[in-house]
Amino acid sequence: MISVIQAKNLLQSHFIRGKIQEMPLVESLGLFLAKDIQSPLDIPFFDNSAMDGYAIAWNDTHPIRKLRRETKIRAGEMQGINLEENEAIRIFTGAPVPKGADTIIPQEWVKLEGDHLSFDIEKFVKGSNLRKQGAQNRAGDLIAKKGAAITPGMIGLLASVGIGNIPVFTPPSVGIILTGDELEDVGNPLEFGKVYDANGPVLQSYLYQFGIKHVELAKAVDDPIQLQKTIDAFINKHDILIISGGISVGDFDYVKSGLEKAGVKELFYKVKQKPGKPLFVGQRSNQWIFALPGNPASTLTCFNQYVKPCLLNWIGKENPWEPLGYFPLDREFRKKQGLTFFLKAKIKDGVLEILPGQESFNLISFGSANCIAEVHEDVEHLSAGTKIPVYSW
Ligand SMILES: Nc1nc2c(c(=O)[nH]1)N[C@H]1C(S)=C(S)[C@@H](COP(=O)(O)OP(=O)(O)OC[C@H]3O[C@@H](n4cnc5c(N)ncnc54)[C@H](O)[C@@H]3O)O[C@H]1N2
Ligand code: MOO
């Protein structure tokens, strides 16, 4: 049995990166940029108005202009318009500023008498309410760095400069096999001896969250021949195989031998941790194979601590092990030495609460946790206020 650190080091030295491909902007949500991005354009692309109002040429002493009644410049206007001396032209937000204008006076700040427009000169300066060409960025500027997360905000920035396809690391296709005769699908009545499948939905929703859409799910009963068929089929078509359950030492735990028969090379089996001790990780050419212990807290913790970092690194995240931070315990904590504990916890007002219900069958804390806290294998006692590492949920 190896320590948590040894397990993570082994994974890190075997990381697999996806190939670079171009992907439509919105479909890349959750992935990471595979290359630096330079803007092809100045943005704004042209000087434009930030307000509905009047375009003028600034003069430090002169607050009166003659309004050109016949002209109104709307957003989308493509004709070049010239402002004459001492003139004001009606303009709307986003519309191109006429040549010769340098300041916009919002409509609520002007007084109109006949064709004469006046305003309070103290309230403005030259350039007020005018968005200059290139104020966001110049053509050629580096606007997003390789490795940056593709968030809704990043997608907005790239769309604003006209980039429709972006380089990403091709996300893996993932096969999930849920083992156990006892599993029942949510939606069906639960019979004596059965348990609702919680691990399938946990794993699927984690993958959706990371922008991994190519996911296939199968259930396998505890029969070695049927399980082998499913393993062989899935391992031949997916980059990553995640199996839940059947990896412990029971008479019906056929996963490990099935993976060996499928040519999987073991990286490690069993980690000094709670929950999730009988975790198996292996590789086969450029594929990851994770067999997660079936208890829901074990599946979730092992996914969170081991599968997720490997997946995130595959799609381009540089430091996938990085904790959220170190947070102080709200009360003391005791455990026996020997195993690292991963605990469902909640950060509130900067303080860490370890939630009740940590047994590996118990999901009650899943509904209120917002992080996973780590207590090192050597630790027996932590006093209130001790800062410990905390990982995103
Ligand atoms: N004699 C020993 N028994 C066990 C050991 C051990 O060291 N010696 N380890 C225990 C630990 S720790 C864990 S964790 C589990 C892991 O067992 P498996 O990976 O073989 O998982 P299963 O036996 O298939 O299931 C365990 C448990 O989880 C429930 N389960 C399974 N899949 C799901 C699912 N998709 N959704 C919800 N619940 C699920 C299943 O019904 C079992 O109750 O082994 C211990 N035993
Ligand atoms: O590793 Mo198991 O998760 O303690 O029940």
Topology, pairings included?
Blueprint: H1 4-12, E1 20-24, E2 37-38, E3 48-49, E4 53-56, E5 64-73, E6 87-91, E7 103-106, E8 110-113, E9 116-119, E10 130-131, E11 142-144, H2 152-160, E12 165-169, E13 174-179, E14 183-184, E15 195-196, H3 199-209, E16 215-220, H4 224-235, E17 240-244, H5 255-261, E18 265-269, E19 273-274, E20 280-284, E21 287-292, H6 296-314, E22 325-328, E23 333-334, E24 340-348, E25 351-354, E26 371-375, E27 381-382, E28 387-392
Parallel strand pairs: 5-6, 13-16, 13-17, 14-15, 17-21, 19-24
Antiparallel strand pairs: 1-12, 2-11, 3-10, 4-6, 4-7, 5-9, 8-9, 18-20, 20-21, 22-28, 23-27, 24-25, 24-26, 26-28
Helix pairs in contact: 3-6, 4-5
Describe this structure in words.
This protein is α+β, with helices and mostly antiparallel strands and 393 residues long. It has four domains: 4-18 and 171-314, MoaB/Mog-like domain (Molybdenum Cofactor Biosythetic Enzyme, Chain A, 3-Layer(aba) Sandwich), CATH 3.40.980.10; 21-43 and 135-169, Molybdopterin biosynthesis moea protein, domain 2; 48-131, Molybdopterin biosynthesis moeA protein, domain 3, CATH 2.170.190; 325-392, Beta Barrel (Beta-clip). Helices cover 17% and strands 31% of the residues. The protein contains six helices and 28 strands. Strands 7-4-6-5-9-8 form a six-stranded mixed beta sheet, with no helix packed on it. A six-stranded mixed beta sheet has the order 16-13-17-21-20-18, sandwiched between helices. Strands 19, 22, 24, 25, 26 and 28 form a six-stranded mixed beta sheet that branches. The two termini are 26 Å apart. The mean pLDDT is 96. The site of molybdate ion has 8 residues, from loops. The site of ligand LQZAQKY5 has 28 residues, from strand 13, helix 3 and helix 6.
